[in-house]
Design a protein that fits this description.
By secondary structure, this protein is of the alpha+beta class. It is built from five helices and 18 strands. Helix content is 12%, strand content 23%.
Length: 334
């Protein structure tokens, strides 16, 4: 009898072992948006090919799309992972993708997309010296797409003076002038405190303020990777150059091609240093990593490590540094 029971147990165990447990795990939904920036005339492409599931093969996963995340689906479930859409107006949209596997397990993934007017570019002439500069109308103001290069060039090591003449330093390789522009002390950038708003900018233009930088951050709220928007030849056409800085006391140039700063008007105390932005190849200063601009908007004395200050330079002060300038115009150029 025990022999028959043992055989029965073995058969039952084998039968149970051959049965698969029901799949109750949700698939992992994911999708990309291309392009990441466009206006109401842009056809955006959504791709959920990277979605996955532990049991269902990728090609059998089904996808549907809700362009406004309002519960009204613009498509039915389909094994086609691609979807294209042109938005009727400039606005912020919440895009939802829902994935279903063979066992009817469902998951969703949502991303924000901001559909805004495409920046318009222009070229204007600085009537003071006839130099031409690229500019871009970004949402509600014009930005120079190049660093300012106005003023009298000073040899390295020469001091600036309060003489009503804009004085600058230039990186010692002429081929970089159109990229890096001039490097100005804070005194020269503001005409020794007499022009904190306009600074050394052309008539009708001014120095950037923290609210200008915050505006860019607000527009890019949906991403932490600013590279596709702010780097050279990217979508916002600001072309932020890694122009480094010039250190007056040692008459040396630092971190060209690696990091960058430009001045802002923040009415900082006379003994503090504050630049508009600090940007390098990534936030942890791994210069061999991907380039990702970092917008600095908080008003606080910057620690020496963060701004690449060296102890041999002595006490931390903006008087010891010359930086580039980008100018802003509040209204559209006619």
């Amino acid at each position: 009898m025990s022999r028959h029971i043992s055989l029965y147990v073995l058969i039952l165990f084998a039968a149970l072992a051959s049965c698969e447990l029901p799949d109750k795990q949700e698939p992992e939904a994911d999708f990309t948006i291309q392009p990441r920036f466009g206006d109401s005339l842009t056809v955006f492409h959504f791709d959920a090919s990277n979605s996955s599931d532990n049991y269902t093969d990728n090609f059998r996963l089904k996808v549907r799309w809700d362009i406004n995340s309002d519960g009204e689906w613009e498509s039915e479930f389909s094994i086609n992972k691609h979807f294209a859409f042109k938005f009727p107006r400039n606005d912020t949209y919440s895009i939802s993708c829902e994935i279903i596997d063979d066992q009817k397990n469902v998951s969703s993934f949502t991303q924000l997309l901001q559909v805004v007017p495409v920046p318009r570019d222009s070229i204007f002439t600085d009537l003071r010296d006839g130099q031409k500069y690229k500019a871009v109308f970004l949402f509600d103001r014009w930005w120079m797409s190049q660093n300012l290069n106005y003023g009298t060039h000073l040899p390295e090591g020469d001091k600036t003076y309060d003489n009503s003449i804009a004085e600058k330093y230039n990186y010692p390789y002429a081929s970089y002038d159109s990229i890096y522009g001039g490097y100005y002390t804070w005194n020269e950038a503001t005409d020794y405190g007499r022009e904190l708003e306009k600074g050394v900018c052309p008539d009708g233009w001014r120095l950037p303020r923290i609210d200008d930088i915050q505006r860019i951050k607000d527009i890019l709220f949906f991403t932490s990777d600013y590279t596709p928007y702010l780097a050279m030849n990217k979508q916002f056409m600001l072309d932020l150059a890694l122009s480094g800085k010039y250190y007056l006391s040692t008459k040396t140039w630092h971190l060209q091609g690696t990091t960058g700063n430009v001045w802002i008007n923040h009415k900082q105390p006379i003994d503090k240093f504050l630049s508009w932005i600090y940007y390098c190849k990534n936030p942890r200063r791994r210069y061999d990593g991907p380039y990702n601009p970092i917008l600095l908007t908080d008003y606080q004395p910057l620690d020496t490590e963060f701004v690449e200050w060296q102890n041999i330079w002595g006490e931390f002060s903006y008087h010891k540094i010359a930086l580039p300038i980008r100018c802003i115009k509040d209204h559209e150029i006619n």
